[in-house]
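Here is one chain, start to finish.
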Amino acid sequence: MPNTQDSAPKFKLVAFLGIAGLVIVLILGFAVNEPVGNWFSGGLGLKDKFVSTSQSSKGNTADTEIESSTVREVVDGDTIKLDDGRTIRYLNMDTPETKKPNVAVQCFGPEASKLNKELVAGKLVWLKADKEDKDRYQRFLRFVFLNENDTSDVTKSVNAQMVKSGFARSMIIKPNNTYASQFVVLESKAKADKIGLWGVCAKPFEE
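Its structure:
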């Protein structure tokens, strides 16, 4: 006659091992198709709450997303205001002053403002950031494009057009230096050819 006292613990052990093995198989099988971190957070209902800082922080780069808006006002040669209320400061360039407090209107400043107005006033533009979103004055730093299809080529931006045509100089302020070399080349060529302010102003950006 079997000893029931001896068989009971053995049965419980076998049952426990069987259940444990099944759980392990299920976990491993699920993990093959789902990263452990995603499985863990998803299984606890936390998948949408835990996002790595590299994904959640806006690190603007050359591959940053493009947005569009309409220009409500042209402030001067390198600054505009949008319909959504934001003020945009053009990246990587600088035009002679026309409205800076306690600074006299500089040579070619009015011409730069006029050209910027002709290019973008009232128009739909596409905006592209670099690494830094705003400057210390809380102006949004952007490259401005008139054609959405041009946004992959920064030399087709309004910023670059202003430098290329001699209405602005290149001005690179880190960390927004992704396209520094392109703007330096554009300024050098405009200077060499004495285009725009480089052929008219005796002391550009100093008057």
